[in-house]
Amino acid sequence: MVTLAELGVVREVRQDEDTVVVTVTPTYSGCPAMESIRDDIRASLRRAGFGRVDVRTVLAPAWTTDWISESGRRKLAEAGIAPPGPAPRRAAGPVPLALVARPVAVGCPRCGSAVTEVVTPFGATACRELRRCPVCREPFEHMKEI
Amino acid sequence: MAFDDAYSALTDHDDDARWAYGTGFSDPLASVPSSVPADVDGADLSLYCLMLGDDALILSHRLQEWVTRAPELEDELALANIALDLLGQARLLLSRAGVASGASSLAAVEDVLAFGRDAAEFRNVRLAERSDADFACLVGRLLVMVTWRLAAFDRLASSRDPMLAAIAAKGVKELTYHRDYAAQWVVRLGDGTALSHSRMAAAMAELLPLTGELFATHPVEARLAVAGVAVEPVSLRAEFDGVMAQVLEAATLDPVLPGPPVAASGEGAGRDGVHGPELDEILREMQSVARAVPGGVW
Questions:
Q1: Do A60 and B173 touch (CB under 8 A)?
Q2: Which residues of chain A does B187 touch, with a Cβ-Cβ cutoff of 8 Å?
Q3: Contact A38/B at CB under 8 A
Q4: Is B297's pLDDT higher than 80?
Q5: Among A30, B102, B164, B181, which residue has the fewest nearby CB atoms (within 10 Å)?
């Protein structure tokens, strides 16, 4: 299972006297999983014997897929989800407009083929797109770089 | 655990599981340090956050209406995702508006603001509430709205209100691909068949003259811009015009002169709560459950 820490959603865990303080950050502004994430963290810590838990939210700096750890990327690939490449770097000045989709090299998490194609850049959740591998002909999801 | 059982996940929240608003929502800014900078007027900051939050909330609702009606399944996914991002931005901004105005109970403030206000209290620009006659109108309007918003948020990322700055910096990443999506569709339709070209051209010719409201300065914006919290909308004009020119040219569409600036305040201004029947129509649907069963729990 990919953990919240591996996804970079957990930013800090510390003990403040008798309270465990966990700081989390949302992936996308509208991420509907945030409340479940907070509940799961509270429940896990209570099961581990920590009675007093404070889950805090931070918005800055904004989450980036670059925070997903190596083990998180490996587990995503094992689950059939192509992990994100490096997040796009932005030069100074206004945000550039992309009138054609920027090509991103994504390997197939099933057969390892280096070249795959986009089926739809928007998927079942904000963070994923649907792709297809022309070699093994399987569809798969790719976590988008952000 | 939330994902062990789909049915229990709908009801296992011990906090505030009000189905009218989705399951288990609570303050999206839970425990975020929230003080307002000492020299910033809380009432002004609250109104400004409402303006930006209402733009996103109302536009998001209009996008949601296209789910099950879009030309392709892929575009339903795209529109639903963009609507969700905007709804997330709206939640954060409405919560910030509540904090800045000194609301005592923060857990419900976004719900009260979204579902408890009448049309005259909404601060969105009127372009946000417009209904779309066809898909060309939709992508054209989305392009206009998110091009303005991206330019604004990019500047607001250095706002002196740390919360507004954080919301904006996060939103920039999302608005970047919203704008790309809308621009790519405008080009595809404009540079497409004779029929798609004529409908895209008609949509832009109708929309661009309505953009004046986006660039007029409201007194709240003017005061907060001086305080380093807000942006003067007129300062977004060059970037907006540049993006529009780039898209229209690639779409083989005639450059259309945007509308003259109109007053941002007073008669006819969405920022002051003056709206058309289209906002009433949105609110009737969006607020129906919340108003029928106030605070209802299922």
A1: no
A2: 99
A3: yes
A4: no
A5: B102
pTM: 0.92
CA distance A135 to chain B (A): 23
| pLDDT tens per residue across span B152-199 | 999 999 999 999 999 999 999 999 999 999 999 999 999 999 999 999
Architecture of domain B40-290: Up-down Bundle (1.20)
In this structure, what token pair is assigned to residue A77?
């690939």
Distance CA B29, CA B78 (A): 26
Tell me which chain A residues have a C-beta less than 8 angstroms from the C-beta of B251: none
Encoded tokens for A78: 């094992």
Identify which of B12, B23, B89 has the shortest CB distance to residue A29: B89
A26 contact B CB<8A: yes
Q: Which class for A49: exposed (0-12), middle (13-18), buried (19 or more C-beta within 10 A)? A: exposed
CA–CA separation, A98 and A105 (whole Å): 17
The domain locations on chain A are 10-57, 65-89+100-143
**How high is the ipTM of this complex?**
0.94
How far are the Cα atoms of A26, B163, B173, B174, B245 from residue B96, in angstroms, in the given order?
16, 7, 20, 19, 34
